[in-house]
Amino acid sequence: MTSPTALPVAPLTDAEVRVLREDFPLLTNSPSVYLDSGATSQKPLAVLDAERSFYLHRNAAVHRGAHALAVEATDAYEEARRVVAGFVGGTERELVWTSNATEAINLITYSFSNASAGRGEDAAARFRLGPGDEIVTTEAEHHANLIPWQELAARTGATLRWIPVDDAGLLDHEAARQVIGERTRVVAFSHVSNVTGAITDVADLVGLAREVGALTVLDACQSVPHLPVDLPALGVDFAVFSGHKMLGPTGIGALWGRAELLDAMPPFLTGGSMITKVTMESARYLPAPTRFEAGTQRISQAVALAAAVEYLQVIGMERVAAHERALGQRLAAGLAQLEGVRLIGPAPGTERVGLAAVDVAGVHAHDVGQVLDVAGVAVRVGHHCAQPLHRALGLTASTRASAYLYNTTEDVDRFLTELAGVRTYFRVGSTR
């Protein structure tokens, strides 16, 4: 008996989105169209209420004290870890709380640096880098997944190499086969570009890394909020993401890593709560994830992030992804029709998330953003913390519209309408 063919998941309808928007106080109280979720998302009441409820009813230090309130706080904190880890296919042992994805990447690089300096047990040897070793990243990376690797190379004497992009800003996978080689120890890359909206062929890069025994680090900031993501199934060794981009609060992010790797890594930050024994001469550390969570933690933020995950799960990430795929295609198709507007990244009809960046001929991105802002459309302008990518495209800045589950087709159309008038406003490209 054959299995039935899976039916395609239907995108959210505009009517459904309007109902969802009632959960977002800022959106219901503002006439503006918010198309800057790639930078930070808006927060539903469920998330705001979860953080407030924690402070009202369970506020205490976690993993300290034996009184009932401390136990309740610890239970809430660890339950949040279970919920968020499960959202990306992991377990509690594999999820480390951080302040954001940037800190998570720095945690990895500083741990590798400590291992390279001889810290850690014998198992930490696999993280040691030195002259002759190579770290590979890509020309499309957010600075947060580039600069920490630059610094690690500088501290250890390793060489930093990168996979280039093509004329559309997409990764050159053929070139990747030349860049990733027998000296490669780490390959770090983004799942989804925060500039082009392109979805990386993770399996291809993971396969190339595995052939040479290199570790893989995935920047999942633009994928975990928008796509169904199973990190163990993707085959990566580490991944990072931020709460504030996925309906959660600021000040909370996560590092996911294979448990055996996390346990072998030397700590990054040190202090209380992550130790088993301390003498005046030395200290011994707990297993992961606790060994990476020194000091008082982001307790209420973790609880609120778990509430954000539960909100997304009720809607269903397949539907979220289908909705954003439809908005992304509407964006790309509409932008391709505008005279003097260069769409960056995948062409219309090619897979992308609900994000698109453009260059408007003759008008600086900051001026484009100002005109749109006056018209009530909020977008991101600048280099989006990706200067090398913009430089490769011959640009200093671009204008980016990024949608989320609370955006409608009407929002996209309003953006396209207002953008279409920008060159006329500045009298660029006219026949006069």
From TrEMBL:
GO molecular function, one term: cysteine desulfurase activity
Residue span(s) of domain Aminotransferase class V: 33-415
Swiss-Prot/TrEMBL cofactor(s): pyridoxal 5'-phosphate
Keyword Transferase belongs to the record: yes
Keyword field: Pyridoxal phosphate, Transferase
E.C. number(s) listed in UniProt: 2.8.1.7
Top-level division of the source organism's lineage: Bacteria
NCBIfam families referenced in this protein's UniProt entry, alphabetically: sufS
Protein's name in the database: Cysteine desulfurase
